[in-house]
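Predict structure. Chain length: 126.
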Amino acid sequence: MLEHNKATSPQHELPQIPNKRYFTIGEVSDLCGVKPHVLRYWEQEFPQLKPVKRRGNRRYYQHGDVMLVRQIRGLLYDEGFTIVGARQRLSGDDAKEDKLQRHQLAKQLRQELEDVLGILRRPRAQ
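Prediction complete.
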């Protein structure tokens, strides 16, 4: 039987992110398939990744941070980027274009969901 390695599994196999405000470094580690020391290293390498630090320098990640960690993980592990390449991808024109495309896709998806909701709300013919 093949052993499943969390750190190299594709991004689509990661668990769903729970709907909560803050996540500990251990929770983010589990949600993103990377070890806590890797998260701490990425904080140094990616200026966009800045979890809230509270008592005793404890890190608390927000939902956007978890999404960013998954994006970094995808660039490094799935797409084979170097740290420098991933950093440039996240901060350059590519990042702006990706954000625009995600925004347009979200807008389109929302419209499609509203259309489906409208269909579901229509009275049924008997």
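Summary: The helical segments are 25-32, 36-45, 63-78, 83-91, 93-121.
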